[in-house]
Amino acid sequence: MRLRSTLALTLVLAFSAALALAPFRSSAQRRRGVSLLLVNGKVFTSDARGSIAEAVAIEGERIVAVGTTREIEAAYTSARTIDLKSKLVTPGFNDAHIHFLQGGRSLMLVNLNGARNLAEAKARVAARVGEVRPGAWILGRGWDQTPWGGEWPSKKDLDEVAPANPVFLQRVDGHTTWANSLALSKAGITRATRDPQGGEIVRDANGEPMGILKETAGGLVSRVVPDPTRAEMSEALGRALAEALRYGVTSIQTNDVPSIDATPLYREFLKAGKLTVRVAEWQQFNNSVEDIKRERAEFAAFKDDPFRLRLTALKGYVDGTLGSRTSAMLAPFSDDPHNSGIPRMTPEQLTRMIVERAQEGFQIALHCIGDRANRMALDGFEATLNVRPAHGDTNLGMRHRIEHAQVVAPSDFKRFSGLEVIASMQPSHAISDKRWAEDRLGEYRVMSAYAWHTMMSHGVHVPFGTDWPVEPMNPYLGLYAAVTRQSTDGQPPGGWWPEERISIEDAIRNYTAEGAYASFEEKEKGQVAAGMLADLVVHTKDLLIVEPKEILQTEPEMVVFDGRVIYERQKK
Ligand SMILES: [Zn+2]
């Protein structure tokens, strides 16, 4: 009733307006019906100029027009018009480096994130021991020994609380694991076991494995851990999607291991209408070229909508992490003068593998933390300059990527731009690592670490991500880190190496448009523009003007995905 009278009134007003403004009459009559209108907002379009609009017209899954409220209302009509009440709208966030299924699964494991001391970590493991039967594996992740005094924990600590369950716990960076005696014995690790290539079984003074396994050594245990069941993986994906939804993440570029087993799960959710992110899945760089091509062919046979589910880069690892002192450095760590990290392969091996895969037209994404690893990858990419891919769209270029690009030798920044290599970075890493990064790197190298501003000033594309579950999936935390270089409690005042701070506009662009570029989709998404996919976030606060600490208190008011409103914040 009320609706009808409002409608009648609108018609009367429209009619009198049409009489009063005769020249507009014909256009008013031709107003095009669309599925959704957003009006009276502050729309950050994420284009290169930082344009702001007020209103968006959406038909189906695409944006058809962007403009002022007056322009959009004059040209379009919809059964659903949402008054944004001046709220900020941006494109949906694109997490350009994530481990989506592992992240979802981490929500089901023993969570050691934020354990302030060894006793707290042990208590969390003990709690899980009480919930499961003897003999069942206890898996967890997120521990970090640096606030516990820096010493590695040992198998004995876990044996005390879990004598009858094998325990296997990944460090926060996922590159070092902590196991108890039962887990080591199930994996057959004894004092006679040699260190595998690219890894280390840390031993005590008597040569006895102490329960800490670095890099590939963790694989000795993980291969005897039973695989998660299909039902468990489905639950993990559901949890990951719920997490993405509450943060306004509408696109992910994900490395799920094993990746090819992940795609049927995503496909199942897509068919059921439950896949509320666009998925760019990575394959494993280390697999043989034949296997990679076979996987591509099998994937292509399903003819999925490429803007909902696609295979993009090949993900490889050149080194480990700074936290575990396994990143490959040009010079030893400042706090460990006999150690310069562990490259996962020789430069010759790496270059050969890069060239072979580039020849087949594959985009390559290499995890590089240390300056030596970054240089190895750049050298390998340089060797592809004369490679003509056998297939693939060569006009787009290869867009090879270095993931993390954490410590880069000053002379190598210009090589990123010269070789058109993408630097895929995670701002929250900097504010997590700053406590000890300076000890590891020393005062000189730290100046070119986590250097996203320097990268951008060289014209390098810098998509942002989180590496979830290494860091929270929360993109607002990433935006805050990018613009402040401060931990969430505001330390240090002025920011850690504040020269590397960037504007909030650039940070949002890196989280949206640059992410789309990194997966070859900049013509499809990442900006609020006519023709683009309609993935939008309406924010509770105006990120462009609030104090940085308020960025941390911001959340989505509403999320539009594929042209539909899929999330609305509960009014408190
Ligand atoms: Zn990662």
Structure description:
The strands form 5 sheets. Strands 10-17-18-19-20-21-22 form a 7-stranded parallel β-sheet. Strands 4-3-9-23-24-25 form a 6-stranded mixed β-sheet, covered by helices on one side. The chain is an alpha/beta fold and 572 residues long. Among the domains are: 31-91 and 527-572, Urease, subunit C, domain 1; 109-222, Diaminopimelate Epimerase, Chain A, domain 1 (Roll), CATH 3.10.310.70. Helix 15 packs parallel to helix 17 and helix 17 (475-484) packs antiparallel against helix 18 (504-511). Residues 1-26 have low confidence and may be disordered. The radius of gyration is 25 Å and the shape is globular. Helix content is 35%, strand content 20%. A hairpin with a 4-residue loop joins strand 13 and strand 14. The structure holds zinc ion (ZN). The site of zinc ion has 3 residues, from loops. Zinc ion binds at residues 97, 99, 467.
